[in-house]
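Q: What would this chain look like folded?
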Amino acid sequence: MKIRPLHDRLVVKRLASQETTKGGIIIPDTAKEKPIEGKVVAVGNGRVLKDGKLRALEVKVGDTVLFGKYSGTEIKLDGEEHIILREEDVLAVTKSEK
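A: My prediction, written as structure tokens:
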């Protein structure tokens, strides 16, 4: 399914969380926290400013981003979980796809 978020929103697919700790202890599913890192799969056109101009997003498709634990709205696309969030909810870009 193709999706294009509106305005300054982006669609992010969470990256898989760690299954074990550095010491080798296996983390059960009930104790795992949702990852706060994900890959951007779609972006909107940009934010409309008060004067009517469009400001392009700094985040691009393919970027790996960090976001708040409770940020965004969770959705399912083609059976996979994604999050729709605003650009302002992105805390940092860790890797950019060139």
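The CA atoms of residues 55 and 75 lie 26 Å apart.
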